[in-house]
Amino acid sequence: MLQLLTLSSLGKDLFNIKMLIVILITIGLITLMTILTYLLEQQVHRRKSRYWTILAHGSEALSVLISMILLRQIFITLNSGSIISWTYATVQLTILLFSLNTMRNLAVEIINLLMPLFIYGQAIWMGHTTQYLPIFVVMTIILIGTVIYITHNYQELHTTQWKYLLFQILYGGTWWGVIWSVHPFELTHTLVIIMAFILYMWLIRLAVNRVQKFFYEVLTFDRQVNYDELTGIRNRASFDTSANEVFNAFQQRHMGPITMAMFDIDHFKHFNDQYGHLAGDAVLRHVAHFFELELSQRSTHGQIFRYGGEEFVIIFRGSPALEVGQTMRTLQRELKTNPIKFNSETLAVTVSIGISELQPTDHRFTDWFVRVDDYLYQSKQAGRDQTTVESQLLID
Fold first, then answer.
1. pLDDT digits (tens, 9 = 90+) for 220-256
2. For domain 236-393, which CATH number applies: 3.90.1640.10, 3.40.50.300, 3.30.70.270, 3.90.1150.10?
3. How far apart are CA 204 and CA 262, in angstroms?
């Protein structure tokens, strides 16, 4: 009879109007976390910078902690100051498992690994017994192994449904073992709780899959419209949009400095004629990736575009022309010392560069653009592999 009453209490805790509110809030938090993760991972992919990777993964981990804190405060409000609730524990575990499946980075993995110690330490500090410490140790060891496996075998788990379900049950089951070691409850409840946890995760996964599909379609469309298919950097259409936005903002607010650098690959036709068009494609990718990576690592705030053919443009916000000239001249020399390997050939690549800063006297965008193009032509006339800044050839 007592067991039936306890199960009835468990059912009321897990399935009531408060639970519905919490499910909706949890789905909302996870949706926001999904959006944040996709945006941050896109930046990591584009910038290819260790700094951005650390920043993105730290931000993702912080979003997990903030979500758990918000859920705690929501439960305190809904339950008159109490957080002793099956629903509370279940949604917190849902957040943890979701972050493990979606974010898949070291910071989130560490949160999952440390959380059992935090829960146990908090319980002991609040006066709970250490009678079941051996059970806590065993459950924590199994949980650690489960977390590590989920993190490093994500693709396998998501392509094999029975494995995904098995590790979801294992994750939830060991976590409830950890909780039981400080909050003993009827062991017969475990099955009901795990089933509720799986139900939560099914609802969350359904919502997240919808969001992920939407973002995949948006990002795919964005890449098709704004990114060059061959090199992966922004294309001519994206340049036209960005350049006009920068020019109009400068005209209205006179912010600055803003500098444009234009460069093209020296003797590019030679690569196509002598080694074939595949070699020419490889050279274009090599140059684009080299400049994109170097600009990102140097935190120059330079945004690179493929303007057309072998010609590229970079817009630097907040950098004067001479500073940009020194940076580009350094990259120009480094590119020359980093040849590309194509089949059995070693291809040395050089570029010619023209640079000019946007001026208040530029009444149209073309005034600025034509000036930069003229300086690029001067560099080519000077023998190529040169940099011209405001009509002055840079001399090493």
1. 666 666 788 889 888 998 899 888 888 888 888 777 7
2. 3.30.70.270
3. 48
